[in-house]
Amino acid sequence: MTKRPLHPRSLAAQAMGEIDPLTKGVVTPIHIATTYIRDEDNGYSSGFVYGRPDNETVREAETVLAMLEEAKAGALLFSSGMAAATAVFQALSPGDHVVASKVMYWALRSWLLTEATRWGLKIEFVETDDLTALKAAVKPGVTKLVWAETPSNPLWTITDIAAAAEIAHAAGAKLAVDSTCASPVHTRPLTLGADIVMHAATKVLNGHSDVVAGALCAREDDAFWNRVKTVRKMQGGILGPFEAYLLMRGMRTLHVRQERQTASAMTLAQKLSAHPLVARVLYPGLPQHPGHDIAARQMQNGFGYMLSIQVTGGEKAAIKAAAHVELYKRATSLGGVESLIEHRASIEGAGSPCPVDLLRLSTGIEDVEDLYNDLDQALKTGHA
């Protein structure tokens, strides 16, 4: 009997339907062994040799993520989002030219400005949502990687992934997309032409603020992807089995969490757009957002769970408002079930492209009216 194809949300909810062969449990056990028995002929017929490069629990979580991202070459889990992102750059060769989004995760931008140059990489930052600027920056035969973050954190600019892929590939370069703030529920960059997609899996993939993890997924099992695998293997950047188990648990509820978070983010964006103490709302779901049309084309099931607001009264009013929230939590990170608020410019420091009047909002699963009322009273207090 031929099985009917299942929706990704069904496969994720059941972790691909895996059943523990020993107990028949619907949740598979955590595999924590660090070493494995050799066969009598000195081989490893089980496929496992040592815990640093490989682990069964990690494999299971990678299988779910690869399915969600439609990654034909599979997925790799890392000990953090930074470990995943930097592995891509470390797979390049000294002297390689890289074009990267000017607005991006601040820690990775800092690493590219400091550490990546010590690896001999030549980094050029550009507004990747500006295709003319992107095409001008990419050098045929010289540029080896284009790194685009979309939606970009914390301004939520939108890069046209399909167009960026055409530009990169025409120059002989790879396109890698940081899709942390979209999630595979909303955007699957590999289906749009990207070669690699990266996630800070700490965020919405896990969704419970209790795991630090990173992930890479690839469209083709080529030489560059195998180089990335080697970087993880030799540097020991694999995710631990307990963290992989928790990440798997998080991905099983990804779709239902994202439905709630995205709907609430849209409601907040619309209501805050009319708030007298909000100068501007940055959210790709709003028709007035510069990247709205592209986002509507390449994102499904809504426009994500992240938005930012620029507060009237400037930096002082923004910081004061963040100090007076009651339901929102003043904390770094995003994507969890609890809503977070943060004044990004003071976190990122000198050189940040973030406006000083901006507050970044990560929308959780709380009642949206409670979230709005909390922001309303905080904004009023910030201007008192």
Walk me through the structure.
This protein is of the alpha/beta class and 384 residues long. The chain folds into 2 domains: 8-252, 3-Layer(aba) Sandwich (Aspartate Aminotransferase, domain 2), CATH 3.40.640.10; 255-382, Aspartate Aminotransferase, domain 1. It is 37% helix and 15% strand. It is built from 13 helices and 12 strands. Strand 4, helix 6 (161-170) and strand 5 form a beta-alpha-beta unit. The longest helix has 20 residues, at 254-273. The protein is globular. The N and C termini lie far apart (69 Å). The model has no long low-confidence stretch (mean pLDDT 95).
Cross-sheet strand order for the largest sheet? 1-7-6-5-4-2-3
Please write the CATH class name of the largest domain. Alpha Beta
Order of helices and strands: HHEHEHEHEHEEEHHHEHEHEEHEH
N→C terminal distance: 69 Å
Domain count: 2
Q: Tally of extended strands?
A: 12
Question: Topology, pairings included?
Answer:
Layout: H1 8-13, H2 56-69, E1 74-78, H3 81-90, E2 97-101, H4 106-118, E3 122-126, H5 131-137, E4 143-149, H6 161-170, E5 174-178, E6 196-199, E7 214-218, H7 223-235, H8 241-252, H9 254-273, E8 278-282, H10 292-298, E9 306-311, H11 314-323, E10 329-330, E11 340-342, H12 344-348, E12 358-362, H13 368-382
Parallel strand pairs: 2-3, 2-4, 4-5, 5-6, 10-11
Antiparallel strand pairs: 1-7, 6-7, 8-9, 9-12, 11-12
